Amino acid sequence: MPPCCLQEVKLMFPGAQRMNRGNHEVAALVRACKANNVSDLVIVHETRGQPDGLVICHLPFGPTAYFTLYNVVMRHDVPNIGTMSEAYPHLIFHNFTSRLGKRVSNILKYLFPVPKDDSRRVITFANQEDFISFRHHTYKKTDHKNVELTEVGPRFEMKLYMIKLGTLENEGTAEVEWRHHPYTHTAKKRKFLSLQ
Questions:
Q1: What's the whole-model pTM score?
Q2: Where does the record place the Brix domain (predicted)?
């Protein structure tokens, strides 16, 4: 993955460290993370320099969630962008009303530390027809009634395709909690993350 993309992902999560996987095996990475008391492992997959997959593994016991990424716009592609604050962000979850939706919102929520009240950074996860839109903004109050939003990027859509109950090093034997089945007859009609 290009270094600029790794840097942007690192900036999204406060306290994160970035690492280019190189030739390291995933099992060795997970063991190293557990040994150093790392709380989460986030892996971004890319094809020809374009991010297209996201794996979130909560340590030490799981779960592991797998997402496909769509319409990725990195920070350097957003016009008139300033510097990104590293304050802990406030999180907004919209339309995660089903049992699975609440499970996914918890998986995403625990990637971020609790923000201070005066933090001006906001990350939004908005579910629309099982596509989760990720948006990242800062805000400032222009007067006592109005607020001005500034996009700081990146932005993308993500679609959940699997949740496993283990961590990445035992991926082959971990029990599948939920899996998307796109080729069933009712797959196009059903919404999994919201209650319609």
A1: 0.89
A2: 1-169
